[in-house]
Every structure is written in structure tokens, then in C-alpha cells.
Specification:
The protein is of the alpha/beta class. Helices cover 42% and strands 13% of the residues. The chain has 2 domains: 3-134 and 298-310, Rossmann fold, CATH 3.40.50; 138-295, Aspartate/ornithine carbamoyltransferase (Rossmann fold, 3-Layer(aba) Sandwich). Norvaline (NVA) binds at residues 130, 166-168, 230-231, 234-235, 271.
Amino acid sequence: MSIQKTLQGRSLLTWLDYTPDEIRYVLDLSRQVKREKNAVHERFKGKTLALLFEKRSTRTRCAFETAFGEEGGHPVFLSTADIQLGAKESIEDTARVLGRMFSAIQFRGFKQSTVETLAAYSGVPVYNGLTDAFHPTQALADIFTIEETFGGRGGITLCFVGDGRNNVARSLLVISAKLGVNVSIISPKALFPDPALLAQCEAAARHSGAKITVSDDLDGVAGADALYTDVWVSMGEEAQRAERLALLRPYQVNRTLMDKTGKKDTIFLHCLPAVKGEEVTADVIDGQQSRAWDQAENRKHTIKAIMLATLAV
Ligand code: CP
Ligand code: NVA
């Protein structure tokens, strides 16, 4: 079966169930979408998209809503203040009903099991717009931004510094392992990634040739082509703020750490929103080596490509 066919009707929950060729196809399509960003198309005409949000969002909501709407589709934003989502109605029943009315569903929220249930019961493609466990659409934009910067150069090393067990670090591990991008997680031992996920990524890396390393030693940034960080306190974990700050303070991405890579062309990446002065200093995120703003724009192109690939047009 062709890749176009295997992608049609698919949900995107983690990337774990996608082949490297399928991810590569969506990346290539993203490049085409970005090149043609000013062209007028109506590729989602007559389609509807439910945008379910338990947690706040700027980029993900705006990317889905504008990417879908400007192609003639009808996005409908629904927060937990608007609908029953596991409150007075089960997730299964909500999924069944939404599947009768919408062409696709995007979910951002807490539990990975919620997005999995929506996918299992709705009968339409479901996109994970961030859960506690994964942020797959973000990871696609991140790899897209790296490739946009370094072209087809092989042997790229992406180094994530910070909370190594969070959703962004986990999704970077998965997509990098699949695509053969070397990935290094540098975080305090208490925040190392989940060993079960690491084992899955190492299995994928054996096929792709990616090198995965996990360490608490900041000297490990040496040689990194991209240095990536994320907030120290993810949404829903506010109660652990003091403990996180104490653990992560030495792991701030600042000028000294950027210089430690030993490379002048290392780029800085951040999924945003950023807390300047905590995980990154303002001079780094607002400086010459930062690609954080391209990365934010690329959310839209890559999300449009995911929807084009999976929603038959
Ligand atoms: N990076 C990201 O997901 O941003 P939002 O939380 O604003 O959607
Ligand atoms: N790890 C962050 C990512 C925000 C896009 C969070 O979950 O809050």
C-alpha cells in the first residue's frame, strides 16, 4: 500500500506507531505547504474539526484553527467549560457523538488515555495537541526547523536540557529515534526519561542509526547542533514548582552553556511559552542563534501537513 493510503484516516497520538517513511512523507509535505503558504487552496472545504482543550494554548490552538480555516474547513473550539468531557458524560460517549459530527478531532489535555479513547471510539482522525505524556505535533515542527536550518546534512545531534521526563522531551526522543537524529537528554537524575519509553526508542534507533544518550552531566552538550529546552514546570505540575526549580536551576540554557557546545552554529530551540530567566536567558532566546520564532511558525505548516496527509481530500 502507498504511504498516502496508509496515512489516510490515521490519528496522531505519539508517533510511536508511524514508520520513518510515513514521518518523512509528512515532513516533505510540510515543506511544500510552507513554500505554498500564500497560495489559496480549499483542501478542507466541507470538513469540520473539533478543537478540544482542557489546558491552555496559544500556538497549538492558533495553528490548528488557522491552518484548517484558511483551507475552507470549519474549526470549532471547545473548552471544558463548554462541553461534557468525562465530567457528566464518558469520554467514550463524547467521542462517539463528535465522530458523528466532525471530520477530525484535536485534543489537548492531561491524560494520554483520553486522547487514546477519543481515537478508539470516534471513528475519525484524532490529533494529540499535547498531553502529560506526549506532544507529537510539536516534535514534528522541531525536526522540520532543524532540517530547515541544516538542510539534508546527516549526523545531526539534538540535545534537550531540562526536564527529561516531560512531554516535549519524550516526543523528541521518539521522533529522533525514528528518523535517525542523534538525541541527547541532559537532566537531573530525578528527571530522567521513563526507562520503558527509552527502551522503545532504542529499538527504533537500532533501525535508524540514531544515537541516544541520557546524562546529568552538562559537559554532554559538547558537539550539539541544536540545544533545546522547555519550561521547568509543565502545565498541571504547578504544585511541584519549588522542587523543580531547585533541581533544574543548574540546567539553565545561557550564554555559557551555548558556548560549551564548542560550535558557533549551534541553534537554540524552545517549544514556547518560555519563562525567560528560568530555563533560558533572554539573550539566548532573543539572540542570533535562536530559531524559536521560526519553530513557532512551523507549527502551523507542519500541523496543516499532518491534517492534509490524514484527512482524505
Ligand atoms: N508549544 C506549544 O504547544 O505552545 P502552546 O502551549 O501555546 O500551544
Ligand atoms: N512541557 C510544557 C510544554 C508546553 C507547550 C507543558 O506541558 O506545559
